[in-house]
Specification:
Layout (H helix, E strand, L loop, with lengths): L1 E7 L2 E8 L5 H31 L12 H6 L16 E3 L10 E3 L1 H17 L13 H18 L9 H6 L9 H5 L6 E5 L2 E2 L6 H5 L6 E8 L13 H23 L15 H6 L12
Helix pairs in contact: 1-3, 1-4, 3-4
Amino acid sequence: MVLLHVKRGDESQFLYETATGIGIEQLTYELVTIYNGRLKVSRVCSEIEELAKHGTMLPPDMLGLTDEQIEELHLVDEWADKCIPSGGWRFNRDPVGRRNGRQPQPKMGDVLAKAIEDAKAMISKKLTTENKPLTQRIVQDALDLLRGAVTIVYPMQLPPHDPIRMEFSNTEDLSGTQASLEVIEPSKVQLWFAGKLMHVDKRLGEIVGANEKTKIIVKLAKLNEGAPGREPVITEDAKRQMMLHAYRRQEELKKLEQDDDDQYLDSAWSDSRSLKRQVHGLEDVKFKFTK
């Protein structure tokens, strides 16, 4: 299997195993699906963290309003009493006014926190340094884990306008958000290798060769972004080692320049007559004086 190190720009994303016979069009779709799936897991984790602190999302017409404004406009959160967390809740006001403040009890909060921790570990970028490939199945398992934890805490489901529920049902609206800039539409994605665009009408083996044990770096880019930057000839680790070696050498030279000590003249190797004494067998001759 060919091992692909997938990057977005200069940032590592994940490893992916595939065969040389796969078409570039199919490969690009599989990679961007995993890439977008990881972003979805991260978004859901972020929202669940807020859910564990401040409860379910307020209706759209109540978002960001103060208590006085809500009372003046006679607005009511009809979903507050329908979507109650298991084990009850305690009030914890949302400072940004997005959620209703009905925080789950600590035990249920721990269920959500554990699911977040496990899901993040399943799709972590650190897997690239551990040489562990990522698959669509793993990304889906991470989402299922989060969905299961939310269902345990909220068996009556979340309100239909809650972004977590919308993410699970794939009806999320990311327009106007930073997240929308990160997501890459499958129809507008390009795959690059060694500074060259991988054309969709070719197969992977035509570009990297027939060796199934190859490991290469490929980069995802949007259609209008142009070619991503090339990989540096020297890795960051090698660069650090070279700088460390140069620094040590510089320090050694400084010490030599500052060292004016002439004690070396007392050493045996500095004696110009040492070789002559060795030839005549006079080395290490000792005299004993007796009366």
